[in-house]
Design goal:
5-stranded antiparallel sheet; 559 residues; 38 strands; mainly beta; 38% strand; 7-stranded antiparallel sheet
Length: 559
């Protein structure tokens, strides 16, 4: 199991509304809007500098006619938008743009054009939602995010992605803070993989404000990517939809229309689940004339009978990716059956992940209006099937279960809650995973020792040592010493160039280092311990937790 995908995680938010949301759900799905909308003042006006859009249900929002910024979110008479003299926008603001508005039946659509980039806002009669799309045609304008800026003091300033600038201390790069009690906070510490959340936001108990994410088909990084979701401090609050973020990124930028993502107001509860990307019926968008929009009729589906060779101790995810789009779906426990809907036509690389480790790759072609059926896929790429003399952890593409792993997606390694990063392990037949550090750094815990015994028969032969890593910082990689035998320095695999281990992410490119240890390296006396030493090597330098480092998935010695 992935410890970060649990109800106890600090930012876990997947509670769904029940039957009480039926009226709103009908409207979101294209059915009749609630009766209260019929008598409300749905529509728009022009105040000279801004388009003013009234949803007719309590939300009025305003869009700048010169920049396309969202400059006001007035909900039931209270203003929520803006802080520090800034408003809500793509990136840090598009600047001078062409902004137009038109109404199509019960929908108002605002179009923002800035060079080759297009951005859209929409309102539907009777619904307290702002629907948004962003279309990146090329790389001529940096567009990593849409940020909703909210006034301070309305929502609780709480959680690992909150801090107090007037009281907390910056300990790294201007964006990691430490409180007086030693706990660390950062905008990077929302801690959720993209596949683990549908919405993120805040509630006072009587008012909720949420960002419901899009399906991220034009984003990058895959289902396990972690990125900015929200932040808060005494100066203001931010909610994000990530378009393409470079932090810990493993994929190139994709271009095209991303959305809708939805800014949703509620009366304190979570947003209507009918808005969630897996089920959102967007047929109402088909007639709006949004450039690049592909409705359900222009999309296809992939359905798989199942997966053979699954390990029941791990979840499985099936991912689909090409240069234009990405998708994923969870495989059913037991059978491995899977279905992925709403896919753009094209040929995709299909990857089956055990946990977050790729154990099968293939290709599949998606055709508009049809379902592509796949026979049972037999998994043959699981390294756990190889017999091992000993194994620290399990091969699942994450450091889950190791020392400090459960903390590291929402805290800095210097956090007071972290156990000491140093410490050696003795393999005596018990599970030592929880004693083995999840991360190794050249300047922090270099030279971790693993003690183990071999039988006389085992010591008479060469054996392969494998070390699986999930990412690296500054090309940090393991060089091993076994007793008096020293391995060659391995070549660095491709990994993200940004911070990762200190900003809440172990997700890079999974890679397995292999070392063939000769028989001459072993102790010949079975009563004596062999000593494996793990050193981090790199041609780059750094200090402390910003020295070359790597994240460990699994270490084993094969039979």
């Amino acid at each position: 199991m992935n410890p970060y995908d649990t109800p106890s995680h600090p930012l876990r938010r997947r509670t769904l509304l029940g039957a009480a949301a039926t009226g709103t759900a009908l409207a979101a799905l294209g059915g009749p809007a609630p009766a209260r909308a019929a008598a409300a003042a749905f529509g728009w006006s022009d105040d000279g500098t801004r388009y003013v859009v009234d949803t007719g249900a309590g939300l009025v929002f305003k869009v700048s006619k010169s920049t396309g910024d969202l400059t006001s979110l007035l909900y039931k008479g209270k203003e929520y938008e803006g802080y520090g003299g800034k408003h809500s926008h793509v990136e840090s603001g598009l600047g001078p743009s062409t902004v137009t508005l038109r109404q199509v039946g019960s929908t108002v659509l605002v179009t923002v054009v800035h060079g080759t980039l297009r951005h859209y806002y929409a309102a539907r009669a009777g619904l307290n939602n702002v629907y948004l799309w962003t279309d990146k045609a090329d790389a001529s304008f940096t567009a990593t995010r849409y940020i909703v800026r909210l006034k301070p003091g309305i929502f609780p300033n709480d959680g690992p992605d909150s801090w107090v600038e007037g009281a907390d201390t910056v300990i790294e790069a201007g964006d990691v803070w430490q409180r007086a009690d030693g706990r660390t906070r950062s905008k990077h510490y929302s801690g959720l993989r993209v596949m683990d959340y549908d919405h993120i936001g805040y509630t006072t108990g009587t008012v909720g404000l949420w960002m419901v994410r899009s399906n991220h088909e034009k984003a990058s990084g895959g289902p396990f990517y972690r990125s900015l979701l929200r932040h808060s401090n005494e100066l203001g609050v931010g909610l994000y939809e990530i378009l393409h973020y470079n932090q810990s990124q493993t994929e190139a930028m994709r271009f095209g229309l991303q959305g809708p993502y939805v800014l949703a107001f509620t009366d304190g509860g979570t947003p209507d689940p009918a808005l969630f990307p897996a089920v959102h019926d967007t047929s109402w968008v088909d007639g709006l004339g949004i450039a690049g929009w592909v409705g359900a009729a222009g999309r296809g589906r992939v359905a798989g009978v199942g997966l053979a060779g699954m390990d029941p101790a791990h979840p499985y995810t099936v991912g689909f990716a090409n240069a234009d789009a990405q998708y994923w779906t969870r495989a059913a426990a037991g059978t491995g059956a899977f279905s992925c809907r709403g896919m753009l036509p094209g040929t995709y690389t299909l990857t089956v992940h055990k946990g977050e480790l790729a154990v099968h790759t293939g290709t599949v072609t998606v055709t508009a209006g049809t379902a592509t059926a796949l026979h049972t896929i037999t998994l043959t790429g699981d390294p756990s099937t190889a017999p091992a003399i000993w194994r620290i952890g399990d091969w699942n593409g994450t450091p889950a279960g190791s020392k400090n792993a459960a903390l590291m997606t929402y805290a800095h390694p210097a956090d007071v809650r972290a156990a000491p990063w140093t410490g050696n392990v003795v393999l005596d037949g018990t599970d030592v995973r929880s004693s083995f550090p999840c991360y190794l750094w050249k300047d922090v815990n270099d030279g971790v020792l693993v003690y183990f015994r071999l039988t006389a028969a085992q010591a008479a032969a060469a054996h392969t040592l494998r070390i699986g890593v999930t990412t690296a910082f500054l090309n940090g990689r393991p060089r091993v010493t076994v007793n008096d035998w020293v391995s060659a320095i391995p070549s660095p695999p491709a990994q993200p160039s940004t911070r990762s281990l200190t900003t809440g992410s172990y997700r890079g490119n999974n890679h397995t280092f292999t070392y063939v240890v000769p028989a001459s390296a072993w102790k010949t006396d079975p009563s004596q311990y062999n000593v494996l030493r793990l050193n981090v090597v790199s041609g780059s330098t750094g200090t402390g937790f910003l020295s070359p480092g790597t994240s460990i998935d699994c270490v084993d010695l094969l039979v």
